[in-house]
Design goal:
One of its GO terms (biological process) is sensory perception of taste. By secondary structure, the chain is mostly helical. It is built from seven helices and two strands, in the order H-H-H-H-H-E-E-H-H.
Amino acid sequence: MPFGKSIVSQVVNFIINVHLSMAWVFPIGFICLLCTVLRLQFQALTQAIQVCLSTSRSNLLRDLATFRRQHLQLCACVRVLDVVFRRLIMTSYVTNVPIICFLLYQLVTSNFDGLLSVCNIYWLINNAFCVVIISLYSAIVHEEAHSALDALFEVQTSGADPDQIVELQLFLSKLTGPPIGFTALGIITVSKETILTDRVGSVISVVVVKVITCIFITSVTLHCTQSSRLHHKCALSSAFSFLHRQTRQHHK
């Protein structure tokens, strides 16, 4: 340490490292906390709609405008938070996925070195955890934001007022329209469909599979090359030894 091993310098170094770790960990924890709050709010709204639907259809149609306004307020909260977190989500994908591929390559191709391998495994788990946790919590918010759709499809509109039918149609158009949730730089909305079946998710899956395949082929090629070189060295060594023995016998 440049300031010696005094207690004061060690305490200052510890505080600085804690703050640096907080700058890396706390944004992800903050996203998870806000996603949990939004999930609970959307769940409470959906449960209120389901309870109102099960007790009395007329009460649901009467309170439909109130439910729709509450849902719009929650969607506005999601939009405001998305403006804050969209860059962080995109940065997490753009930086962590290549690092994960590089660490996998290092673990597969390099010989096992105790401390270095443990460090690579640690950072591999950390980067994968960041990607998975952000994707999971963001996808849950998207699912809960659209969770009232099934309940509204069960509403019977016979005998309803025109205003109530309009409110129902507006509510349904909001739920079936553009996806509600957090985005990666406003390009894609993070959801289960995006992760598993959408084009972006398919492209990421194909890239990861190709990278892992290339890592495997490269490791096998390097292993075969090293084995071939070792075999040639052994063959040349044996040939030189044989020639040396023959030469000595000839001189004798």
